[in-house]
Amino acid sequence: MTTTQQQDAPIPAPVHDVVHDLVGVGIGPFNLALAALLDGVPEADRPRALFLDAKPAFSWHPGLLLEGTVLQVPFLADLVTMADPTSRWSYLNYLREHDRMFPFFFSERFHIPRREYDHYCRWVTENLPSCRFDARVTELAWDESADTFLLTCRSSDGTVSSVRARQVVLGVGTAPVVPEPLRPYTGTPSDTAPRVLHSADYRAHRDRLAALDDVTVIGAGQSGAEVVLDLLRRQNGDGAGGPYVRWLARTPAFAPMEYSKLGLEHFTPDYIRYFRALPEARRERLVREQWQLYKGVSAETLGEIHDELYERTIGGTEPRAALHPGVAVEAVERSSPDPAYVLTCRHTEQDTRFTVRTSAIVSATGYAAARPDFLDGLAKLVEWDEHGRYRIDGAYRVALDRRVTGTLYVQNAELHTHGVGAPDLTLGAWRAATILNAVAGRTVLKVPDRAAWTTFGAPAPEGGTG
Asked: How far apart are the C-alpha atoms of 298 and 223, rounded to whole Å?
């Protein structure tokens, strides 16, 4: 039997003699920003880099690429502009290459369509030779004898290959989070008609959900608001058709994202330095308290929801919708024989319990960093904190065992060490430039020492040393 298993197993391709200076795992916007900035380095000085992704092509939150949705950050927060506005991979150059500069100018947009941002990123990947798709990394190990990282990859046809690198940057993104009471009922990848799903899969099932009589959306962030708005618009003009839409959220209000000019200075290198210097317990508390900085809803989307509900009340009719903030879902049961679910809820401020019955549930409960399986072989050489998270320095390097002479970086896994800017596109190019400089061992791209008017923390003593 051992012989048969060996014959059936894919035969790994030989490890190439080429050792890359950097290999990126995952090609989302953040690692793509690094790849794009690297491409601008003169070829003679450019680190040898390769970026790998399991998907067949670039895609960015495809389940939420709904018509009319826009980025929550200005178009200048593209892959490169905040670090290198001269790069050919800027959004403005994308517009020029696609003959859209004049239409964009006349549209007077500052926040661009989400679908176009996805297309812009895809255009970059299709023109960067360092990006390789259909290459799932299955193992990342440290080869002490060769003094390099060894990455094992598998393509969709079963081909196995290996890549060596001196430095690795993890940009595998975050995974959808589903509350524990909902997990027994969520659809599997092979389920073509789930009744309980994460908002990441909403677009593929929106028509079917719109045909049901009652849909409950859980979560008060931008994704939840966009799903609620889309379902409301699926109702007939008089509100008679389409599903009854229920919106539940733990937050005390359906609140707008903080978008004041000084408030946005939390998304600067200045705030990162301040946040990193705080004790861990205070950082943990701040991340929870600052939810409105990165988990709120755009004021425009909240206004559109209000307008839809206003339309439903013309002539004295009642809207077929209900909005309930300050509510925790504590239990879910499947109603039999009807294909429905009963949610046991608790109003957190009144400490009052109630139940709702619904035909389907969309869990718009966000995303969280997760340790990828391919890291298991390296896990014993990584220094984890008491919560099982990476220990990360100011240049986004992961603390490793002293036997590892290579460097491991992470992107968008540092909320606990760098603050609320970790998942935000605003800092993507700046963080990529910071990593690029660390990889090169010199200043390739100048990053600002100060970017905020706000002084985070106590002012320096007057008169120098005091």
From this structure: 10
